[in-house]
Please model this.
Amino acid sequence: MPRTGKWLAAYSWEFVTAQKALLCHAKNAVHKPASEGHDATKRLWEEQHPQPMRLDDAVEFCRRSHQMAPFCFYNGNTFAGIIRDVVHNLNLPPEKAFILRSLAGHIVAGVSTGEEEKAFREFCESLDTQG
Amino acid sequence: MKPEIDPKLLDDPVFKRVLADSLAIQDRFSAEPVYARTGKGSLKSEGVKPLQEIKKARKPKPD
Model:
């Protein structure tokens, strides 16, 4: 399996925004764009999400999008949910998939340790060498 | 009021799967944009139970 692919191509900005709207609805939170982060994140996402990128760069891109806070509420699980789906699509054995989803989710959430980041990077490096 | 979402998205299996997972992890996240404000994210631990369940499901059942 190659390390580089169009990992985020399936997740348009419309997809992101609709996810976010329903997540806010579930918690009776206001769904609205943030005055500071929205336009810049939207522009960056629309430019970058269809492009081929390394898996670890896709995780980093989701982390950065979370940190840019395009919405007033629930940015974290919006972008973590997307990267967890990317890992889901790798069709790994259940235990490994669980661990890698957690690692990727922690990185996107902004709570990962150096060890977790190293473990995820090593997994990504192994992709090019797997059959 | 439920937000208006394109019906094509609502029928999209990828959209449904991501939404289900994001809702499942939602309570672990802070609603507020803490990461943008502080540079440090916030996430409650999910504990070891989910991994234990995966391991349990994998173990062959005794005859």
Observations:
- The helical segments of chain A are 13-26, 38-48, 55-68, 75-88, 94-109, 114-127.
- Chain A has six helices and two strands.
